[in-house]
Amino acid sequence: MIAVTTFVSGSVILAGCGVASGNATSRGEATPLSSVLRWGVVGNGGAIPELQLDRPSLVTGIRGKVVQIATSNSDGYALTSTGVVYGWGVNSDGELGGGHRTPYETKAVKVDFPPKITIRALANPMPFDAGIAIDSAGHAWGWGLNGADDLCLPGLVHVRPQELPLSDVTLAAGARTHALFDSKGRLLACGSGDAGELGNGSTASSNVPTPVVGLPPRTEITALTASWEGSGALLANGDYYDWGYNAAGQLGDGSTTNRAVPVKVALPFPVKQVFQGGSGPQNGQTIAILADGSTWAWGENDRGQLGIGSTKSSDVPVPVHVPHGVAFVRVASGGYASYAIDRSGRLWVWGDNQHGQLGVGSSRQLATRPREIALHFAQVSSTAQNVAGLQYRPPQS
């Protein structure tokens, strides 16, 4: 299932299928809000002028309680408790799923699913210029650009969601030109395989779901993540496997060799949560929270994305410099910058800030160690230089 973080009495609850669980209404408890904020790059620098927001700004147009957010390279998405999906951002390839193309939507618009379809989870991250969602019956839906057949569909552009040829889907993730799905307990992939990101033992691409090979048999997968030509799967026992592009050591296996079959990352403790970042060949890395509460990272670090106090990259996992007394419970990365939420919901940021993606009110560059910004979030998602966060109300003293 897709895990979503909410905060209750200072603790973290991982709620399945993108829907927050637990009541948080009494005094002293954290109350999730439906306020979604965005910051970083607005537009794509092409037909849409590239603007940037140096501070988090409210996304308008969303109706209902938001329970999950996700981002694509130039878009954001929100899922409400009633199974409705909203999107905002670039829409030149129909990636907002509203049935038409427009240059850009600042206000969130409703994704136009067929009648009686209730969405229970979003892929996070989303594929390049596209969206993927899972409905209450376990069907996967895709919309937007399908340039490398990463949506497992025929046709280049889909301005409305189309049902994918998969069933019993529990997990999904996508990035650039490929996507991953857990379907009937099998891990499948569609799209480009240039760097081995499909995990099928070759660099061949596929326009139909192809099995990922090399994972331990009869193993439950609890989370999927993806980045620029990279893929990863977290197993129920806490083992983490990744595969694909590895020019900067993104796979954490002590090499810079691409892998077309999953490799297990050697870590001192089981993994609790993990996220790959990367929107291009020069900025990929992975960040993971382990069972002992520590946070580790590996891969490209020329902008300080690893949070280790330097700009030295690493092809093996290294500990993030988490401030004393702070414990991270959720991490994310867009490739050039990284993010974490601590037990009290405070957001911490580090890495590049050229496009305002740290949300600190300026474009001052480089924070090589985590720094706090004065906002509380239940979730954060980032792809490329755009960031979205789901706010929550901190406990009353």
Brief rundown of the structure:
This protein is mainly β and 397 residues long. The protein has strands at 4-8, 11-15, 31-42, 51-58, 66-71, 75-80, 85-91, 102-110, 119-122, 130-135, 140-145, 157-163, 169-175, 178-183, 186-191, 206-211, 221-227, 230-235, 240-244, 259-264, 271-277, 285-290, 295-299, 314-319, 328-333, 337-342, 346-351, 367-383, 386-393.
Task: Provide key terms for this protein.
single chain, mainly beta, 7-stranded antiparallel β-sheet, 4-stranded antiparallel β-sheet, 29 strands
Ordered list of secondary-structure elements with their pairings:
Layout: E1 4-8, E2 11-15, E3 31-42, E4 51-58, E5 66-71, E6 75-80, E7 85-91, E8 102-110, E9 119-122, E10 130-135, E11 140-145, E12 157-163, E13 169-175, E14 178-183, E15 186-191, E16 206-211, E17 221-227, E18 230-235, E19 240-244, E20 259-264, E21 271-277, E22 285-290, E23 295-299, E24 314-319, E25 328-333, E26 337-342, E27 346-351, E28 367-383, E29 386-393
Antiparallel strand pairs: 1-2, 3-4, 3-29, 5-6, 6-7, 7-8, 9-10, 10-11, 11-12, 13-14, 14-15, 15-16, 17-18, 18-19, 19-20, 21-22, 22-23, 23-24, 25-26, 26-27, 27-28, 28-29
Q: Could you explain the architecture of this structure?
A:
The protein has one domain: Methylamine Dehydrogenase, Chain H, CATH 2.130.10.30. It has strands spanning 4-8, 11-15, 31-42, 51-58, 66-71, 75-80, 85-91, 102-110, 119-122, 130-135, 140-145, 157-163, 169-175, 178-183, 186-191, 206-211, 221-227, 230-235, 240-244, 259-264, 271-277, 285-290, 295-299, 314-319, 328-333, 337-342, 346-351, 367-383, 386-393. The relative contact order is 0.13. The strands form seven sheets. A seven-stranded antiparallel sheet has the order 4-3-29-28-27-26-25, with no helix packed on it. A four-stranded antiparallel sheet has the order 5-6-7-8, with no helix packed on it. Strands 9-10-11-12 form a four-stranded antiparallel sheet, with no helix packed on it. Mean pLDDT is 89; it is low at 1-32. The chain is globular. 0% of the residues lie in helices and 50% in strands. The two termini are 34 Å apart. The protein is mostly beta strands and 397 residues long.
